[in-house]
Amino acid sequence: MSSPRKKPEELRSYRWYGVNDLRSFGHRSRTAQMGYHSSEYMGKPVIAVLNTWSEINSCHTHFKQRVEEVKRGIWAAGGFPVEMPVSTLAEPFQKPTTMLYRNLLAMETEEVLKSYPFDGCVLMGGCDKTTPGLLMGAISMNLPAIYLPAGPMLRGNWNGRTLGSGSDTWKYWAELRAGKITEDEWKGIESGIARSPGHCMTMGTASTMTSAAESLGLTLPGFSSIPAADSRHAQFAALTGQRIVEMVWTDQKLSDILTAKSFDNAVTTVLAMSGSTNAIVHLVAVARRAGINLTTARFDELARITPVLGNIRPAGQYLMEDFYYAGGLRALLVELGELIDGTQMTVNGQTLGENIAGAEIYNDDVIRTRANPLVARDGLAVLTGNLAPDGAVIKPAAMEQHLRKHRGPAVVFKDYSDMAARIDSDDLDVTADSVIVLQHAGPVGAPGMPEWGQLPIPQKLLKEGVRDMLRISDARMSGTSYGACVLHVAPESFVGGPLALVKDGDIVELDVDARRLHLAVSDEELAARKAAWVPPKRPFERGFGVMHQMHVTQANKGCDFDFLETPSTCGSQESAQGQAHSAQGAQVTSSKPSTEPEIH
Ligand code: FES
């Protein structure tokens, strides 16, 4: 646990400000240049407020104000706040995918914290990849840190109907393509579906990861459920600023909070809320930064005993605003009982159990009781088989149940462009029993493993009334999406995984209950296809992308860069293809935790 209270001269920032030499003269004179008297910062914790605000991040528009509230709290507690802008990762706008840049935010977070005179930090994120990116970097630096979740936006509204981010976009897009709604109605949806600050209010990646951050013990209790527009969100921002100052004095670091059990709590939370499949990739990566070997198999183990209690779209009916009014995450965690380990420590210095004590469910349709779950178990399922030696993922709660056990012929698209060009073609040989397969959509190939995994249903099937069919790719899928979509196939096709070998007409077999994904093609035939397979040209020739394609790990390892993982986490099993991919990069297998810079 935390150490005895620090003395001012033991602060990390003292090395910049407190010593009497030429360099510290420079630091003090330049701080004076910014208008601060030495009495405002000398001997006080210097707190970085890492802000992912930008003018293009629609989910973080309130962060310009929230950062002032955080700073107010830091000042009030006797700290010295320093706002630092970091990569914004605006999900709707950044192409090809924010996932390509999650590790860039993680690197930036670690390097900013390391290279400036910071004693602790507040991490301001929420829009999908910002939560894992900030946490990964902060864990590697391991200063006292606290997370400020952006909070969900208010319910969408259109013509008297409630709209959910993403989920209703896909739903009404399908209706438009099927000719069931007009262009004017589609425009009305466009203006009403996102009508306040905050992240997506469905159980997408943002709500999933901010809830997971709270279960990990990294936010003030109850914070992740508060809508961004609620005045209590602003109050919690100020309290977060106050708290980080105390965390610095007691030297309460992330390594004092994160354990294998706290990650189990986070996984259980994700499962109980029918959270985004993206959480698997992100939590694995976050855990591996903390030196904890969280595996996809652990997700599957916990899924078999965890009921889905959060009745939130896309798997359920309601939105995060309803979830907050129904009691929020604290109430859900109480209901999970012994499935949550309440002894785990959190950022406010109390255990998770102490933080959730007394929380109540106020609407047991929104937060179901264990006696009446939305789904009894299997919020997520991890599949393996000859088509996915290192695993694949499906979300059984968000698919048509007749597809849980399915067998059908593959219709293969070699990449996204091929799919876009042919999927709606009248002469595409496809039926409702077909299995749509998309290749080259993984971490290296796409690149960045975009959220393409909710592959479109061919228009001619939509017109016949088909709304779900089995679809398989090595992509991810937005947490706001739904359908019988097998995702995260590892190793990916681009590096020679078996998905690269599938041909039109091959029979694909899915059995969710048996956790099996099988290609009914003989081993000999697959070996012959593999021998004839030619590695495709890598997508990047310059810039950050080159680093990405050389060092990104496969989905089952979290898609971190191999040289940024904390040692001791490695050692989980992977297939020959996965190992072969690692060997293609200039792999560094012995990364070290962040070290302090020399100050000259
Ligand atoms: Fe930011 Fe969905 S677009 S969370």
UniProtKB/TrEMBL annotation:
Comp. bias intervals (Low complexity): 571-587
Enzyme Commission designation: 4.2.1.9
Keywords in alphabetical order: Iron, Iron-sulfur, Lyase, Metal-binding
Domain Dihydroxy-acid/6-phosphogluconate dehydratase N-terminal: 44-355
The organism's place on the tree of life at top rank: Bacteria
SUPFAM superfamilies: IlvD/EDD N-terminal domain-like (SSF143975), LeuD/IlvD-like (SSF52016)
InterPro entries with a match to the protein in the record: Dihydro-acid_dehy_C (IPR042096), DiOHA_6PGluconate_deHydtase_CS (IPR020558), ILV_EDD_C (IPR056740), ILV_EDD_N (IPR000581), IlvD/EDD_N (IPR037237), Sugar_Degrad_Dehydratases (IPR052352)
Sequence similarity: Belongs to the IlvD/Edd family.
The name this protein goes by in its record: Dihydroxy-acid dehydratase
Lineage, opening ranks: Bacteria, Pseudomonadati, Pseudomonadota, Betaproteobacteria, Burkholderiales
